[in-house]
Amino acid sequence: MELFIGIINYLVFFGITAGTYAVLSLGLNLQWGYTGLFNIGVAGFYAIGAYTAALISGPPPDVWDGRLVGGFELPFLIGLLAAAAVSGFAAFLIGLPTLRLRADYLAIATIGIAETIRLILKNESWLTNGVWGLQQIPSPLYEPIYYGAKGFVDTHPELYPWVQQLILKAYNWFYLLLVVVVLVALYYFLKRLTRAPWGRVLKAIREDEDVAAMSGKNVFAYKLQALVLGAMIMGIGGALYAHYARFISPNTFKPLYATFIVWVMLILGGTGNNKGAILGAFVIWGTWAGTDFLTNYLPFTASQVAALRIIMIGIVLEAIILLRPQGLLPEIRRSRRLSRGEKKTGEAESPPP
Amino acid sequence: MPLLTAKNVVSGYGDMEVLHGVDLDVDEGEIVTIIGPNGAGKSTLMKTIFGLLKPMDGEVVFDEQDITGMPPDRIVRLGLAYVPQVENVFPTLTVHENLEMGAFILGGDLRERFERIYALFPALATRKKTRVGKMSGGERQMVAMGRALMLDPRLLMLDEPSAALAPNLTATIFDRISAINEEGVGILIVEQNAKESLKLSDRGCVMAAGLKCFEDSGPQLLANENIGRLYLGG
Amino acid sequence: MDILARIPQLLVYGIVSGSILSLGGIGVSLTYSILGFSNFAHGDTMALGAYFALAFLSLLAGAGIPGQPFGSLSFGLDFVLSLVLAMIATSAVVVLLDRLLFRRLRLRKANRITLMISTIGIALVLRNVIQFFWGPQPHYYSAKIQLAIPIRQLGIRVKPDQVFIVSIAVILVTLLHCFLRYTKMGKAMRAASDNSTLAQVTGINTERVILWTWVIGASLAAAAGALTGIENKFITPDLGWQMLLSIFSAVILGGLGNPYGAIVGGMIVGISEEVSTAFISTGYKPAVAFVILIVMLLIRPTGLLGRRN
């Protein structure tokens, strides 16, 4: 029974983390999958979202802090919206000069931007507390739920111990529900958006910018919108992370865990497909978390096992690119070209990831 | 037996079919010109013959060997050479280096070959060490042709050799083309400037909308009034 | 006044750093111009070279190769041999990666972005393979502290090792230049860099050109990595990724696709990074390369020595 409870609790925790990554993946899918923006700076928007939420909802600087400002202790939802807004605004500022660049230039620019954001987070202690990070970020509705659950358990001693254990973990269940709600809301929001004409212009831009431009669309404006909206979604992911982990620092947002892993998730799941983005997040995070226990069983040191796990992720990426570039759930294409009277509607495989 | 045969070639770019089944023969030592409007598929045909495009159907035979879809670097060893319309030289390399690249697959002493090419294009002989990117259009075209001739091809394919050249240079180029042919090299030319080209051609073909629609001897085609009106710009 | 007085010394550091960035950048430019894509795994290739050099160093010590330092340098024949072996070993790894991965994508005519994404995966794998075998902690090239020799007239202090680094860079670059200018394969590489389709049409064996491109790029990267080890005294698995931004900045500044541009760009970025520390906090030193990059991309993306492709 103990083991069972342990597994259930772990799965809840897993669901929260994978769900957060799924949110990031959806954001990247909008930027890359739909619009073809080669953004290798996911970590930057993720971090901005997390820090904004933490600074808005977190406690004010105290004596041991290096901070001078921030910590308004505002409600969670405000923090969430602020995270989206600030991330979006950052994307706006970044997009203005960079979106006209070619793909590889954009890639390098976004790598640089993400690194610069990390440097700012590290150096500007007056705002971010530098490398020591932000602590005690409050989780929404924590007190009512935790104490409510505890109270319930205390007043019902007749319940089986394992039931009591489950109820005590009620907060995690709540947070999982929160993440799922946000994820589902975002999914349907994006579904509406991408089915609409707006979404189809994005795809047209990805396919062939020049053709899209010729049909009179302001390509740059659309790209900027996609970048900003995608960044807002990533900011929400950051907020979700911050409120659960309750501690963030610049190291949390290192490229490996905050950018590359999201890319692998999206490419595995299926570029251009929102369900794929979510699926990819769960599969990759599952693989990642699933190999965590190996640390105890393999005759290697901890850092060696960590390296092996990352190598595995890298190989997964290469394998997908070689063997199934469209991912697990290929993009659904509504082919509008009536070439030789053939395809009217149908599913086709998407171009390379 | 023709040196080059293209039979029912269907080709294009991606999903778009440009050639809908083209037949073409070139005999040893002949000069054949293909004329036709823009978009007829003339360049596409050359690229398909030379393996830069994979045909969707049909076959190409050179010197009794099936070269359909063969990669260009293998075709060039069989004695077929190609000069594209644009970007047909290496701009940062010198004249001599461009020619050297033409003979890349050969080893040994190439001096004789170089001499022959410089004899054919005396204007280049004095500018061996000039970077080709700095040269005029006409000179570049000569370098491009010289490069293709380094391997002693039996058939040389030229895609619009006089495009973007001033009229006096055009005369020079066609004069050189004649000279090359006199050494026994067959030439297949795609041209918009059809008049000059047909004057020295043995045969001419007219292509339109992805098909070959007419063929005759060079002089006959020139004299043909209908063709003259439609394709030779009056 | 005090700031200005520091600049000559910072220039010295900049020249050393710039030489290393140049060696790293040449490979990126060559790969871009001949293979047609940006290789984000190049930094980690440098790291691989650095670690190979270290490994060979201890192997050679075990084999009894003399380790006496040359004159006042920190190392001797053993390092030079290790460097050559590291260049060979790194090239072998890179060529293997081409056979296994890039070539297959190439034959499939995969698009450029796919190739770039795959290099990101390779970067990840290389870095962690290094970490698997050597661990995340720093590894030292030399425990000795070398004294800098003051050059009073110029107001600077120069370590013999620094002179060595710059000399090696100059030698390698000169060798490369001669190769590109005078050998048939070198000319073929320049030709393929101008126009790879035409190179094929001409009959140039483009697969062999590509092989040489990888070998030269990887060898120079390995040298850059090993020289970094000498300059910083130690190496970590992250070494490559940390330098990637500076390298790409240098390459784009000089002109993506032009190896000579990489040299010019490398020196400018290296010097700028070091001199900047006189004016801004060292915490932001990596951002200098980034600023140069963004400025170049906005005003002249083709770079100083401009290059099409």
What does this structure look like?
The complex is a heterotrimer of chains A (353), B (234) and C (309). Chain A contains 15 helices and no strands. Chain A is mostly helical and 353 residues long. Chain A has one domain (2-251). Chain A is globular, with a radius of gyration of 22 Å. Helix content of chain B is 35%, strand content 26%. Chain B has helices at 42-49, 72-75, 95-102, 111-120, 122-125, 137-149, 167-182, 194-199, 218-223, 225-231, and strands at residues 4-13, 16-26, 31-35, 57-62, 65-66, 80-83, 155-159, 186-190, 203-208, 211-217. In chain B, the strands form two sheets. In chain B, strands 6-7-8-3-9-10 form a six-stranded mixed β-sheet, sandwiched between helices. In chain B, strands 2-1-4-5 form a four-stranded antiparallel β-sheet, covered by helices on one side. Chain B has a single domain (4-89, 154-231), classed as Rossmann fold (3-Layer(aba) Sandwich). The mean pLDDT of chain B is 88. Chain C is 73% helix and 3% strand. Chain C has helices at 2-35, 42-63, 77-107, 112-134, 160-182, 184-194, 196-202, 206-232, 239-254, 259-276, 285-299; strands at 139-140, 149-151, 156-158, 234-235. Chain C is mainly alpha-helical and 309 residues long. A two-stranded antiparallel ribbon of chain C has the order 1-4. Chain C has a two-stranded antiparallel sheet with strand order 2-3. Chain C is globular, with a radius of gyration of 19 Å. Chain C has one domain (2-142, 155-299): ABC transporter involved in vitamin B12 uptake, BtuC (Orthogonal Bundle), CATH 1.10.3470. Chains in contact: A-C, B-C.
